[in-house]
Design brief:
By secondary structure, the protein is of the alpha/beta class. Helix content is about 30%, strand content about 20%. The chain contains 5 helices and 10 strands; from the N terminus they run ββββαβαββαβαββα.
């Protein structure tokens, strides 16, 4: 397969890059990651919420882009103002008290061609576990201490390294 400007030429499918992380806070590089995903012509997929999801989406839509900013959102939640295509679902938010309950995390992980995991809590750890369980291409972006007790994946420190990791996994 040949990759260029976000397209997988064998099927003409634009790559979908999932970004998972905290719904409460975002690292300083989240917006930069969103801009980089947009500049490469890929789609961005998040859970459509606050924190990492809002920051990476804000970065994505702040630059000219060919792909879409997609949000897999619970039906009862308000809008992330930066999501360009909201996919509403009755599936809820991951609940550590009921881990067997289906959440949007399955859709996020299975839809993305590559998953970039930023610092987060139990819901983010669940997404990392789903990446492992479904054998989805994934890696961490952030400091090592943010991913203690998470499944093993490669980890990168910079957005430039993350972009190279995405390219290598497509």
């Amino acid at each position: 397969m040949v990759y260029a400007r976000g397209r997988i030429h064998s099927s003409m499918k634009r790559a979908v890059i999932g970004v998972m992380g905290s719904g409460a806070e975002a690292p300083s590089f989240a917006e930069e990651l969103g801009r980089a995903i947009a500049r490469h012509g890929w789609h961005l997929l998040t859970g459509g919420g606050k924190g990492v999801m809002e920051a990476v989406s804000r970065g994505f839509v702040s630059v000219p882009h060919e792909g879409l900013c997609l949000g897999i959102m619970p039906a009862e939640r308000g809008e992330n103002p930066h999501v360009e295509l909201a996919v509403r679902t009755p599936l809820g938010i991951f609940d550590p008290a009921a881990p067997e309950q289906l959440s949007r995390n399955h859709i996020n992980v299975l839809t993305a061609d590559v998953v970039v995991i930023l610092p987060g809590r139990q819901g983010t750890r669940n997404e990392a576990e789903l990446c492992r369980d479904y054998a989805r291409p994934a890696f961490y972006l952030g400091p090592p201490e943010a991913f203690q007790d998470f499944p093993h994946f490669d980890r990168y420190e910079t957005v430039e390294q993350a972009v190279q990791a995405i390219l290598s996994r497509l």
